[in-house]
Amino acid sequence: MAVKHSTRAHAVLSASASSRWLACPPSAKLNAEIPDITTDYAREGTCAHELAEYKVNKLLGIDAPDPTENLDFYDEEMAECTDSYAQYIAEEISKYSDPVIMVEQRLDFSKYVPGGFGTGDCVIVADDVLTVIDYKHGKGVPVSAENNSQMMLYALGALKLFDSLYDIKEICMVIFQPRIENVSESVISVSELLCWAENELKPKAELAAKGEGEFCAGEHCRFCKVKATCRKRAEYNLTLAQYDFAPAATLEDTEIEAILEKADALTAWAADVKEYALSQALAGKQWTGYKVVEGRSNRKYTDEKAVAEAVKAAGKNPYCEPEVLGITAMTKLLGGKKKFDKLLSKYVCKPQGKPTLVPASDNRKAWNPAQNDFKGDFNYGKIC
Fold first, then answer.
1. What would the DSSP string read from start to end of 60-119?
2. 77 and 130 co-located in one domain
3. pTM of the predicted model over 0.85
4. Domain residue limits at 272
5. I want to staple 145 with a disulfide (CB 3.0 to 4.6 A). Which of 19, 102, 173, 219 is the partner?
6. Does the residue 221 lie in any domain?
7. Which is it for strands 323-324 and 319-320: parallel, antiparallel or unpaired?
8. Strands 170-177 and 129-135
9. Within this chain, do residues 268 and 231 fall inside the same structural domain, yes or no?
């Protein structure tokens, strides 16, 4: 039996962000106060989910409009990924004689999380087994279903729907991530899930809903909206200052190991702070001792075919199979900058560099997008 139910609303204490607010409860309220910024990656994921929903409904014999022509990010890879997702679900369904299947089902876990709900991509129940499947279109990092708080919350919501109708003993949680061929499955007993919900989830969720509890920095900071300005994260990373950055030869092995352990987190934090400071500067904020300038950029050809023809007409081979030689190599081939400029300058441009925040002592002119100060500063070619 198939049930169609589609909704994509988001709760303040969302399942997708649960790894963060469980580790750092007060971050939930801070993040809720900041508007969401929808990225191309998120929009691509939404398109993939819409297509996946359609294909599973089609598999189940449910009449639904084909969204393909309205998807901004549709491509052959997305078609193949969602086909494989539907095939996986078909294989799961075939294991049972009369399963109940729900697609894009709203799952309520507010018994443990104030206002908590989410959307299960696919929920299958049969006999004493409940299966919750989550489709992920991202390809950056493999996601594991093992001890995955998002999946455990979905499991709680699905259990609430069916516990009174079925004698469910265990729940199978599945992450289906086709772009990196990751299918992660984890089974948890109902008793183990409810123990976690009462003893760990519920107390932390209550703190998170009130904006209380202890701030905690760690890997979960990655998707936090206040990661650039969070004081706890700054304290966590600035502990490296105790080493005074002395030459490595003067440090004990244990100290070097401690630095190595936190180096990636420190680098990511510094990048986040710089990105935040730049965005604020571009919005008009003046940082003492800093200014925004145009970043570096590299020259590029505007018409490779015309470049190749011009170089061949000059008696030279413009190719480094199978492509046209780059600008540096082409300059050398033609015997220097003077000959290069005479022959090819009209086919070369230099894109405007991205704005970047630098110390005020930097000799580049301050960024002024209204006046577009930089258009006359380049020595080669024209501005793209």
1. TT------GGG-TT--HHHHHHHHHHHHHHHHHHTTSSS-EEEEEEEEE-TTTSTT-EEE
2. yes
3. no
4. 227-284
5. 173
6. no
7. antiparallel
8. parallel
9. yes
